[in-house]
Amino acid sequence: MARKPGSRSDITGPRIRAAARHLFARHGFAAVSMRQIAAEVGVQAGALYLYTPDKETMLVDLLRDHMDELIAAWDAAEPSADPVERLEAFVRFHIAFNLDHAEAVFLSYMELRNLGPENFAVIEGLRRDYENRLEAILRAGQDAGHFAVPDTKLATLAIIAMLNGVNTWYREGGRLGRAAIGDIYWDMARKAVAA
Amino acid sequence: MARKPGSRSDITGPRIRAAARHLFARHGFAAVSMRQIAAEVGVQAGALYLYTPDKETMLVDLLRDHMDELIAAWDAAEPSADPVERLEAFVRFHIAFNLDHAEAVFLSYMELRNLGPENFAVIEGLRRDYENRLEAILRAGQDAGHFAVPDTKLATLAIIAMLNGVNTWYREGGRLGRAAIGDIYWDMARKAVAA
DNA sequence: GTCTATAAGACGATAGAC
DNA sequence: GTCTATCGTCTTATAGAC
Questions:
Q1: In terms of domains, do B34 and B119 share one?
Q2: Is residue B3 one of the residues assigned to a domain?
Q3: Between A151, A160, A184, which is nearest B150 by CB?
Q4: Residues A69 and A48 both lie in one domain
Q5: C-alpha–C-alpha distance, residues A183 and A161, integer Å
Q6: CA at B60, C1' at C12: how many angstroms apart?
Q7: Which residues in chain B are contacts of A102 at CB distance < 8 A?
Q8: Where is the HTH tetR-type domain (chains A, B) (predicted)?
Q9: In a structure prediction context, what are the per-residue pLDDT tens digits for chain A, which is 195 residues long?
């Protein structure tokens, strides 16, 4: 009875990641036990250790994969050379991507403190890579005279913080659709950095 | 040996709250044990239960006290009737208060999910009370023709999210002092809601 | 008001059967 | 690849001594 009929690691692996992401986002990394994750997947706790050496590695793998996907998606989508159009594209992309990956976004902001120093540095570096892409847009727009901000780095962080806020209140089927939200935040972001 | 010489509840109580706030903010509510809190204070774990019925009540008391203090401080400080001046005062107040109470702010955004439904509703209600004060400013400024935002509620949340971002990067002794940070964020907030 | 001691159980992780 | 069983430790919370 040891091996369950039809058991396959290429199915169980993704299901473990999905269950861990979901439970960590909902209850917090420290509050979720390996037994809970295993129960959600339908295996015993010991079986999880075929897929990860330990619990922290499960978390950092989720966070790294998320950041890699975020950066790759933006790099694949990046539009025209005009800084204003690029900023608009960034605002709409960031909101849409965050809403499509709400659990992973939540984790990548809330659970960094559960990482050891070296894992923390990896995720922090990826986040900075992403921020630098927005900062470059703002700098190009200032050089072209379209934007004027008192501090480019702080404007970068301010815009990202503002956009991240959407995930704290958005509910599917609410008053505003995603396109309308993009319009509203683009209006505010555009004016905030306007010359 | 039972009672320690000089032990007094009016000293131990605040020290327990401070230790809990500090450890919860640093490691997360679920990751901190009652034994750790007791060790930080210098008592045994059982003694904590003279001051709180359980761990969750410790957390909700910290969060409620923080929100009460935040709202009372703003209500005591609120300045002129002019909406533009009031918005500037709000921006500077919010940044300063958040930096002065960084651990409690962190908790009140990160640990709400560790509350039961009734405790959660209490803290959510206080947060909405505070948000409503900013929303009223934005509405008054629109009525007077000074501001123009596509959606007043979302502008409220966007500004608060932007300002909250300061706590994620600010370090004492960094490149910018608090006054300079207030200037920079006031410039961006003002333009974001400008007519 | 604080201690020691303990109840009753959950935790992360591993060993060995199949 | 997954199971059962288990190790050693930690957990929240309580009881009773002083």
A1: no
A2: no
A3: A184
A4: no
A5: 17
A6: 29
A7: none
A8: 10-70
A9: 444 555 666 899 999 999 999 999 999 999 999 999 999 999 999 999 999 999 999 999 999 999 999 999 999 997 889 999 999 999 999 999 999 999 999 999 999 999 999 999 999 999 999 999 999 999 999 999 999 999 999 999 999 999 999 999 999 999 999 999 999 999 999 999 999
